[in-house]
UniProtKB/TrEMBL annotation:
<feature type="domain" description="Tyr recombinase">
    <location>
        <begin position="216"/>
        <end position="404"/>
    </location>
</feature>
<keyword id="KW-0238">DNA-binding</keyword>
<feature type="domain" description="Core-binding (CB)">
    <location>
        <begin position="107"/>
        <end position="196"/>
    </location>
</feature>
<dbReference type="InterPro" id="IPR011010">
    <property type="entry name" value="DNA_brk_join_enz"/>
</dbReference>
<keyword id="KW-0233">DNA recombination</keyword>
<keyword id="KW-0229">DNA integration</keyword>
<dbReference type="Pfam" id="PF00589">
    <property type="entry name" value="Phage_integrase"/>
</dbReference>
<protein>
    <submittedName>
        <fullName>Site-specific integrase</fullName>
    </submittedName>
</protein>
<dbReference type="Pfam" id="PF17293">
    <property type="entry name" value="Arm-DNA-bind_5"/>
</dbReference>
<dbReference type="Pfam" id="PF13102">
    <property type="entry name" value="Phage_int_SAM_5"/>
</dbReference>
<comment type="similarity">
    <text>Belongs to the 'phage' integrase family.</text>
</comment>
<dbReference type="InterPro" id="IPR013762">
    <property type="entry name" value="Integrase-like_cat_sf"/>
</dbReference>
<dbReference type="InterPro" id="IPR025269">
    <property type="entry name" value="SAM-like_dom"/>
</dbReference>
<dbReference type="InterPro" id="IPR035386">
    <property type="entry name" value="Arm-DNA-bind_5"/>
</dbReference>
<dbReference type="InterPro" id="IPR002104">
    <property type="entry name" value="Integrase_catalytic"/>
</dbReference>
<dbReference type="InterPro" id="IPR010998">
    <property type="entry name" value="Integrase_recombinase_N"/>
</dbReference>
<dbReference type="InterPro" id="IPR044068">
    <property type="entry name" value="CB"/>
</dbReference>
Length: 408
């Protein structure tokens, strides 16, 4: 028997009445009266399909990609079919179906990565740069996982078994803590929701993924520490003086670092800061107080940014240097969880300083001094009371510590 090179593989649509969904594309191979008919995981609307050419019409937006895939699958199927003939064997359609599934799974794995890249590209129009960066990190982890474990990564194999192996990989190979793993899984689920909506994915097992996490610690400066830092003489160190002013401005206003970096002189009028927050796009009005007003007066101008621009990473690096200089040596317990293992160590407060601690310092000190909860939440644009109420426990513990220190 000669090689089969023409008309062996056919593609046709499975037409279903009373449906608005695109029709499934099936691969069909016939051998000695027996027929293999196999769904290839692709769909298309009938108006975009050419029955004669058995390919997508040129005006279809995804025609080039889909037709290239069909051509590749066609060639692969013919090659596998011809191997039986060359070896003088009877064509086994069941085994040929397994070979086709191997091909589809390999393509599916490549599709997940390319689809994730597509999602990141599209998201650049609507998501913040730092959010895009976090999705890219999750994609990198997924690629590393597939390479290191040789896991057959397809939409159909993203199941409970995948979840267990992937979490173990992030824990042991990437050395992530539970909180970081939980964020990674959350990003992956967001992408899979998008892929499902796009019709790329039909498997919704991922929606059941749950990852153990632990409530994050709240670190802050006490009022005495904050005033000590705010009043510390830094006239001979202009670089750290600017870092101190930005940090303390956050401690006295509750503003996020991104909003402070974006703050312009035009945003401040009539003793109020008027901004639309970058993270939540929430309009907000924050009254100045004697401390934030005093800091602003150092930089007061007519237009442009109030503070000199600096990356969050470099800011945090300088902030730790500042903490060591002003001797923020109060010991705090740093706790992390990796799997079921709790790791803890005692460090100077200067070593855990970051831009995030400014907001936490504002909230804890405002609560301790009696500011109403709803006012604080309005200033900090907190909408979830369950998240906010963690601060009450911190403030209560702080009050007890101060009571013991003063009265024993």
């Amino acid at each position: 028997m000669g090689y089969q090179t023409k008309s062996l593989v056919k593609f046709n649509l499975k037409k279903v009445a009373n449906t608005k969904r695109p029709f499934q594309i099936f691969l069909v191979v016939t051998y000695k009266g027996k027929r293999l008919r196999h769904y290839i995981g692709k769909r298309i609307e009938e108006k975009n399909w050419s029955p004669n050419k058995q390919r997508a019409k040129s005006q279809y937006s995804n025609a080039t990609t889909l037709n290239a895939f069909l051509d590749k699958l066609d060639k692969y199927t013919v090659d596998e079919y011809n191997k039986y003939l060359v070896e003088g064997e009877v064509v086994n359609l069941d085994k040929l179906k397994e070979k086709i599934n191997d091909f589809l799974n390999r393509e599916d794995s490549a599709n997940i990565i390319s689809h994730f890249e597509e999602y990141i590209k599209i998201s650049k129009n609507s998501k913040k740069p730092n959010t895009i960066k976090s999705y890219q990190t999750t994609l990198n982890h997924l690629e590393q996982f597939a390479t290191a474990t040789k896991y057959n990564l397809t939409y159909n194999t993203i199941n409970n078994s995948f979840h267990e192996i992937y979490v173990d990989f992030l824990l042991k190979n990437v050395k992530l803590a539970n909180s970081s793993i939980a964020k990674d899984i959350k990003k992956l689920k967001t992408f899979l929701n998008w892929a499902t909506d796009k019709g790329y994915n039909k498997n919704i097992n991922y929606q059941k993924f749950k990852t153990a996490t632990n409530e994050g610690q709240i670190f802050f400066l006490t009022w005495d520490e904050l005033i000590h830092l705010n009043n510390y003489d830094l006239e001979e160190n202009e670089r750290l003086k600017k870092i101190r002013d930005v940090f303390c401005f956050g401690c006295f206003t509750g503003m996020r670092f991104s909003d402070i970096m974006n703050l312009k002189h035009e945003n401040i009028k009539d003793d109020y800061i008027f901004i639309t927050t970058i993270k939540t796009s929430t309009p907000n009005a924050i009254p100045l107080n004697q401390y934030s007003r005093s800091i602003y007066n150092k930089y007061k101008g007519k237009k442009g940014n109030v503070f000199e621009q600096i990356t969050n990473q470099k800011f945090n690096e300088y902030l730790k240097e500042l903490g060591r200089l002003v001797k923020l040596k109060t010991q705090v317990q740093l706790v992390t969880y990796k799997g079921g293992i709790r790791e803890e160590k005692m460090v100077d407060k200067s070593e855990i300083l970051s831009s995030h601690i400014a907001r936490k310092t504002f909230i804890t000190n405002a609560l301790a001094k009696g500011m109403k909860t709803e006012v604080i939440m309005d200033i900090t644009t907190h909408k979830d009371y369950k998240v906010f109420k963690r601060y009450f426990k911190v403030v209560d513990e702080h009050k007890k510590s101060e009571m013991d220190k003063i009265f024993g």
